[in-house]
Amino acid sequence: MSRTSSRTCRLLATASVVYFLIAGLLGSAQPVWAQSTIPLYGGVAPGSAGWTLPETVVNLEPVGAVVTNVSRPTLTVFRPDPAAETRTAVIVAPGGAFHFLTMQPDIKIAEWFRSRGVTAFVLKYRVLQTTPDHMAPKRLFSESVKQTNEEIAAVFPLGVADARAALAYVRAHAAEYGVLPNRVGMIGFSAGAMLAVHLALHSPEGQAPDFVASFYTDVIDLMRPLTVPKWAPPAFLAVASDDQLGFAPFSAELYSGWLAAARPAELHAYAQGGHGFAETAIMQPRGLPADSWRQPFEEWLRSGGWLK
């Protein structure tokens, strides 16, 4: 069993720890989406034509409200006050181990971007088709490494395709949203960070996000080789040294790769925060060092010219 496989399995096995503090805040009700929601595909998303299970918001104890069985990917738009617009856009990719999406914290993060003049698009990408029995905590958090890896391998390419489609949509409609097509970045958390990093590393020149932010990402076999191209976008990487899933070395590996390619990068490895600290801090700060992640991130955005 590879170290990567073990980490992938623990991504599900410790989800209860990751989101424990925000469980009570999320509830089980359908979230209220902001402004407008756009389907990424005109019809059935390529590759999921046979999917029949309905998209559902469920209360996954003790995680809280999550979205399952996403088969029709969308972007939900959060537009800033026109007077405050920076002409920058960002695609926000939630986490959830490709089994579900924890949308509510990412909506709060999108609102934070909007308050700073950035047009934010929350990406609801495809995840595994799961039955209520599959989503039962006793089963979900005790899957074998082999089963978890097979499940993620089956859906990861579809998530990547949805992220690419989202990036293409925002650029194609940039004028409509008051942004510039060369000012479109992507930020991801855990599984969502895997999508952001994959696009940064495996996109042709001129087609990657214009900047990328990765929070506590894993690096699975499907993402390797980790070869940073000469056109890789500026990267902001953040992780906690006490990440329960052991993801800290992966962020350090990515940082070293960006430096080796002579591409701009910034790494923040917080002494305390655990996995999921960014979403937890925006919902319910715990007084830990990682709670302050938005301050250096905002400074990084400003220094790169993405904010006024």
Strand content: 15-25%
Main beta-sheet strand count, sense and barrel state: 8 strands, mixed
CATH architecture annotation name:
3-Layer(aba) Sandwich
The separation of the N and C termini measures 48 Å
Please state the overall shape, judged from the principal axes of the Cα atoms. Answer: globular
On the 0-100 scale, what is the average pLDDT? Answer: 86
The Rg value, from CA coordinates, equals: 18 Å
Global structural class: alpha/beta
H and E string: HHHEEEEEHEHHEHEEHEHH
Low-pLDDT segments, ≥5 res: 1-34
List keywords for this structure.
308 residues, Rossmann fold, 10 strands, eight-stranded mixed β-sheet, 10 helices, alpha/beta, disordered N terminus, globular, single chain
Structure description:
- This protein has helices at residues 3-13, 15-18, 23-26, 103-115, 137-140, 145-172, 191-201, 248-260, 277-283, 294-303; strands spanning 36-39, 56-60, 64-68, 74-78, 89-93, 119-124, 184-189, 212-215, 235-240, 265-270.
- Residues 1-34 have low confidence and may be disordered.
- It has one domain (3-303): Rossmann fold, CATH 3.40.50.1820.
- The longest helix has 28 residues, at 145-172.
- With 308 residues, it is of the alpha/beta class.
- It is globular.
